[in-house]
Amino acid sequence: MEGKIPEFGRFAEPSLLILVSLTDGPKHGYAIMQDVEGGTGRPMGAGTLYAALARLEEQGLIEPLPPIDRRRPYRLTAVGASNLAEQLRGLSEFAQMGLRQLGKTSP
Amino acid sequence: MRSLLIRCYPARWRARYGEEFAAILEERPLGPFDVADILLGALDAQLRLRGHSVDTQNARSFTMSLRVGGVAAIIGASLIIIVIALTGGLTQGSHEVNAIALLVALAALLVALTGLSAFQARSNPWLVWTAFAVTAVGTLTIFIASVSDLAGAGPRDWRDGLLPIGAVTAVLGSVTFGIATYRGSVLSRKGALALVIGPTVGLIGAIAVGQDLWELGMPLVDVGIVSFLAGWFTLGVAAIRLDRTSGLKPA
Questions:
Q1: Is A69 left (phi over 0), alpha (psi -120 to 50) or beta?
Q2: Which end of chain B has fewer beta carbons closer than 10 Å to its terminal beta carbon, N or C?
Q3: What is the C-alpha separation between B112 and A69, in angstroms, rounded?
Q4: CA pair distance B161, B107, nearest whole angstrom
Q5: Contact with chain B for residue A47, Cβ under 8 A
Q6: How far is B43 from A47, CA to CA, in rounded Å?
Q7: What residues in chain A have per-residue pLDDT under 50?
Q8: How big is the A-B interface in CB pairs under 8 Å?
Q9: Looking at the DSSP assignment, which residues form a beta bridge with residue A68?
Q10: Is A92 exposed, middle or buried (0-12, 13-18, 19+ CB in 10 A)?
Q11: What is the ipTM of this complex?
């Protein structure tokens, strides 16, 4: 049941941003949107947010908590945390490789 | 406007996320970017839920194929064993009754072949459907030969009729089906091997009998029949066990 974020197609990047946002504790949808916008400087639409949330929940990477009023918080699962760590390590290695190559070719 | 946008999502999606989604949309005014984003999200949800439903239906039809195939394999193999046991190896009782019972058993095995082929075709479709086609042609040829024999229209010597052609074709198909099942590794591999070995040994025995080498041929025919029936029975049991462990219910 463990999903791979890159397989989420155009929702891969929003999914990664949501998982990162949930690393410091459970959040409801609007709080995630604000967090992502604050971190990246780019807004995330509600349609994109819920398309990514549905995929993440289906793959067991996040789980819903009981709603507070009409807002439902979500939290990262153990599988989600491990999957996120793996993705971030991969991105970090890729970024370091790119920076090294830039260092070699730059004048 | 907001409720209209939410209604663009499928009912199942709205039942799960509708309330919290509506709460988010009320947090701030909607701009053209938000409307476009929500419409794209609704389209994605429609396509995904439809795709999921097709996947579920496919999974259910595969489960149904497995169940029908498994039950038919057990019935077909058991019926042949019962007929052989009750008639002392088809030497006693009415020739017509024995032939009809064997034809019914053969039909059950054909159903089993169809069901288990449909179930296994996901992994190796070319090999599985080739095995199915060859075995089905062989079995139908045996059917036609047996029915014409029952109607008194068959040849005087069975070796001159369609029966040997059907038997050889069915043996080739059964061996191919056994190989496909063995390679698939989903059902019992022992059962698959028995389906390869049984008909091959049986055919060698039948050829020996055809050459009047009865003492050599008959034990081989017996071993072949037992192995063939044990193979189908084992595959049937494996299919039923697999069906029980599956969470999906047939449609």
A1: left
A2: N
A3: 55
A4: 20
A5: yes
A6: 10
A7: 1-2
A8: 58
A9: A71
A10: exposed
A11: 0.82
